[in-house]
Amino acid sequence: MGEEAQSSLDSIWESKDPIFADKELLDIEHIPDEDRIIGREDEISDLANGIHPAIRGGKPRNTLIYGKTGTGKSLVAKHVTRSAEAFAQEQGTRLQRAYIDCTQATTETQVVIKLARAFNDPDETDISVPLSGLSTNAYYDRLWRVLDARHDVVIIILDEVDKLQENNVLMQLSRAGEAGKLDTCKVGILAISNKISFKDSLDERVLSSLQEREFIFPPYDANQLREIMRHRKDAFHEGVLTDDAIPLAAAFAAQEHGDARKALDILRNAGELAKDDGDDLVREEHVRNAREKADVDRFSKLLQDQPTQSKAAVYALSLIADAKNDEEFATREIYERYEQLTERLDIDALSQRRLADRLNEQAFLDILGVTDRVGRGRGKGMTNFYYLLEDPGVVQTAIESDQRFSESE
Ligand SMILES: Nc1ncnc2c1ncn2[C@@H]1O[C@H](COP(=O)(O)OP(=O)(O)O)[C@@H](O)[C@H]1O
Ligand SMILES: [Mg+2]
């Protein structure tokens, strides 16, 4: 532990970030001020109009929002409800909103527990909401009591609602007033989904009560994506972004169905790559490399909690997609590749039927795509065909970050 080691670290600690002035502005979770929100004026005012009655304690209209990823759905929902909450409180209305990410809370009970805990204050209500141990009905019962005790009106945002395993919670929440579960508190639901097909899974009654209003958020064009990034330019030190950086990132994200999340991911990654290179400018090449990195990161995140068997299934698919010209593959073809792979990885091979279960699970999670059509050869019945939603190279790089896969070459 010489003094030199100490001082060489000191020079790192003391140095200022050469690239970023305020990197948080580029975080996906960051909710920007209204003047940085581009091209969503109509959506914001439409949503606000539906929520308006809540400001004075009336029932907000239930709303369903659709649109592809990165079209600003979560942002607009959070922005408008945050503003409503603040305004209502100034008026003396006890309005509170709760945000549920249904990719995290996927069962009915998890959602009800989260809501009851979010809306509760045990010191005030004397009601406890334990993390586990009660029946679903008992949790509902506490939720209703908490709502009547503490709130005039609540707004519940159910983001990525298509990821819920059970729709009963939508029925309970959307009809709580009519069903006499609540005496005074009003409930408004804001359900958000990337998939328009979500509606097909809903009961008529639930659909009609959820769908008092419905919006579709369109994708952004390259101009809007450029504007969105320009309004976050102060994330970087002045002069660091070369002129090409934002337009190129916008062009990439526009190719990707106009996804603002992608645009901001690419821009942030480009800055990080420039920093790693010891460069003090963010150049075109950084943006190009960042695009690939953003794809890998996004895919890694999707896969991170997946068991090895599921990763092996996707990996097998990526290997055949690499080797063959076809894009879609039947379970049987994937299975052959998967069996070889399990030997190499030294793990047990699942049966073909179990592998099909895994593949369907992955398709549900948007890790893979699936279509069903008439199979090749033999029985000629309808068969599932699976395809990758990313380049095979991206998929492999992401999976190989798991050592088991990278070491088995
Ligand atoms: N109109 C917009 N103006 C500024 N930033 C936006 C806009 N739309 C989306 N973003 C940003 O892009 C990212 C993705 O948006 P998000 O609301 O999460 O999309 P979605 O929920 O539709 O997938 C977030 O960081 C968000 O702040
Ligand atoms: Mg979202």
Automatic annotation (TrEMBL):
- UniProt cross-references to PANTHER family, sorted A to Z: CELL DIVISION CONTROL PROTEIN 6-RELATED, ORC1-TYPE DNA REPLICATION PROTEIN
SUPFAM superfamilies cross-referenced by the UniProt entry? P-loop containing nucleoside triphosphate hydrolases (SSF52540), Winged helix' DNA-binding domain (SSF46785)
Name of the featured protein: ORC1-type DNA replication protein
Alphabetical UniProt keywords: ATP-binding, DNA replication, Nucleotide-binding
Stretches assigned to the Cdc6 C-terminal domain:
314-399
Q: Which HAMAP family match?
A: ORC1_type_DNA_replic_protein
Give the protein's function.
Involved in regulation of DNA replication.
